[in-house]
Amino acid sequence: MRLSVLALLVLVAAPPAHAAPPVDVALVLVGDVSRSIDDGELQLQKQGYAAALTSPEVVAAISGGEHGAVAVAYVEFAGAGEVRTVLDWTVLRDAGTAGDFATHLAAAPRSFVGRTAIGDAIAFARTVLDNGGWAGARPVIDVCGDGTNNSGQTVTAARDTVVALGVTINGLAIINEKATGYMAAHTHPPGGLANYYRDNVIGGPGAFVLEIHDFADFGDALRRKLLQEIAGRTVPSRFAGR
């Protein structure tokens, strides 16, 4: 009997075999693949993700933290219920691990073509964070998109729920100049998309929005965004004169 109780105590006290390694930031990259973004623009986004994640500055920021590691997952979303994890949690430590993640991201097929459910995407990203088990890491959700929430749950309610848990939600507003007709109202709300993101999408400690006017600029904007999210560095844009 004593041996059974002792064995039970050992099992309870022992750390789980699958305990996540310590990382500085747990970052969920959330990409918009709604119908307002065509395949060519999505490809530019993916190239931008790859370029930003493997840039020497970002790799140095990753390895320069207290734990020298960042956990990253990549999620795509379109309309209500159209949200999925494309790349599950991966620990980035150096150029090699960042390059592997970027390669898999670039090769992944498009998940959806639908409306734009930002609220659903934020709620889903919160679940991804919960399931990661990154105790002690700074939790960040990074939402990139070219339009307003027009499907699924209310975006502000989803944001407020997640921010109340101590998560920071940042945004990258892509100004899509190609959109016409009803789509233009979706991509160009009153006051501009960046202001829409500020009022409805982002929140939490140090939350911010970056804005770009060309999908080809996505990589540079994301590089600056990652540096601010990972290392707290504000980097001027090489497109600042626009």
What can you see in these coordinates?
The N terminus and C terminus are likely disordered. The chain has one domain: 3-Layer(aba) Sandwich (Rossmann fold). The chain is α/β, with parallel strands linked by helices. Helix 2 runs antiparallel to helix 4, helix 3 runs parallel beside helix 9 and helix 5 runs parallel beside helix 6. It contains 9 helices and 6 strands.
List the helices and strands and how they pair.
Layout (H helix, E strand, L loop, with lengths): L1 H12 L11 E8 L6 H15 L2 H8 L6 E8 L5 E10 L2 H13 L10 H15 L5 E8 L9 H9 L4 E7 L7 H6 L5 H8 L8 E4 L5 H14 L11
Parallel strand pairs: 1-2, 1-4, 4-5, 5-6
Antiparallel strand pairs: 2-3
Helix pairs in contact: 2-4, 2-9, 3-9, 5-6
Low-confidence stretches: 1-17, 234-242
Give the DSSP E fraction (strand runs of 2 or more residues): 15-25%
CATH class: Alpha Beta
Q: How many H/I helical runs?
A: 9
Task: Give the gist of this structure.
The chain is built from nine helices and six strands. The protein is α/β, with parallel strands linked by helices.
What descriptors fit this protein?
single chain; alpha/beta; Rossmann fold; 6 strands; 41% helix; 19% strand
